[in-house]
Amino acid sequence: MANKWVYTFKEGNMTMRNLLGGKGANLAEMTEIGLPVPQGFTITTEACTQYYEDGRKINDEIMAQTMEGVKWMEEVNGKKFGDLKNPLLVSVRSGARASMPGMMDTILNLGLNDEVVAAMIAGNPDPAFERFVYDSYRRFIQMFSDVVMEVGKKYFEQLIDKMKEDRGVKFDVDLTAADLKELAEQFKAEYKNQLGTDFPSDPVEQLKLAIEAVFRSWDNPRA
């Protein structure tokens, strides 16, 4: 029988801390007692160990079970990963057997790309929503670049400061939807400038890179 590398929140409980990490075990326990937990899944601590044994690579079995977890989340939420009509966006968080607050920053709104953003805005004509979506997108690009690809926050903060200076405003909230859309493009250009490759638009690629970043975070100074 194949190893089980992925557990949905409905499959675990608080006794499985060594396998699911403290965060994963507690989310499963809260689900079991009926608290309204947004549903997701946990990749086991054993999968992280296997990643290192495989020479810092996510093997096909782990990735396949991860995508099965995504499919389950799609069914639970009635949304689809990368879909242009009703996209599923996910967060990726690190966890450990022992409590290590701040081991790695959370990545939010993974699954956004140019096409998904355009489709979300097309489905809601409210100007405030357009600004919210572009703000979420530029934040995701910055977060992914920093946490996953280790491109320093300072490069993006410099672009934000320049944008505010050019527009004659003091605060981020004073930037318009058009400003934030332009910032997102500038962020992607900075990503390519720093890494020599385009920002990943495929949600599955984004997810795989994010999982690798969680596994790698065991080697960072905070851990």
What would you note in describing this structure?
By secondary structure, the protein is mostly helical. It is built from eight helices and six strands; from the N terminus they run βαβααββββααααα. The protein has helices at 17-32, 45-53, 60-77, 114-122, 127-148, 153-167, 177-195, 203-216, and strands spanning 6-8, 41-43, 80-81, 87-88, 90-92, 107-110. It has a two-stranded antiparallel sheet with strand order 1-2. The longest helix has 22 residues, at 127-148. The radius of gyration is 19 Å and the shape is globular.
Observed structural traits:
about 220 residues; mainly alpha; two-stranded antiparallel ribbon; two-stranded parallel sheet; 6 strands; about 55% helix
Brief overview, please?
With 223 residues, the chain is mainly alpha-helical.
What's the topology here?
Elements: E1 6-8, H1 17-32, E2 41-43, H2 45-53, H3 60-77, E3 80-81, E4 87-88, E5 90-92, E6 107-110, H4 114-122, H5 127-148, H6 153-167, H7 177-195, H8 203-216
Parallel strand pairs: 3-4
Antiparallel strand pairs: 1-2, 5-6
